[in-house]
């Protein structure tokens, strides 16, 4: 199936979950995960299945003052 992670297109096996998508992307901590605009707790990444055309956004914290 085809998904998008931070604007990049990826091909994953059918029945892949969010955690597998993050592994394919080689995501580096720390980050928050949004699937199709909805926050996904890290504890649910292993059990949240992806569908064709899904979009994952990884949001990294920004420090400032």
TrEMBL record:
<dbReference type="Pfam" id="PF02597">
    <property type="entry name" value="ThiS"/>
</dbReference>
<dbReference type="InterPro" id="IPR016155">
    <property type="entry name" value="Mopterin_synth/thiamin_S_b"/>
</dbReference>
<protein>
    <submittedName>
        <fullName>Sulfur carrier protein ThiS</fullName>
    </submittedName>
</protein>
<dbReference type="InterPro" id="IPR010035">
    <property type="entry name" value="Thi_S"/>
</dbReference>
<dbReference type="InterPro" id="IPR003749">
    <property type="entry name" value="ThiS/MoaD-like"/>
</dbReference>
<dbReference type="InterPro" id="IPR012675">
    <property type="entry name" value="Beta-grasp_dom_sf"/>
</dbReference>
């Amino acid at each position: 199936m085809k998904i998008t992670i931070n604007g990049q297109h990826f091909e994953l096996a059918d029945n892949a979950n969010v955690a597998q998508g993050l592994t394919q992307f080689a995501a580096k901590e720390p980050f928050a995960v949004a699937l199709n605009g909805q926050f996904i707790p890290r504890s649910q990444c292993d059990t949240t299945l992806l569908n064709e055309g899904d979009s994952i956004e990884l949001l990294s914290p920004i420090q400032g003052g």
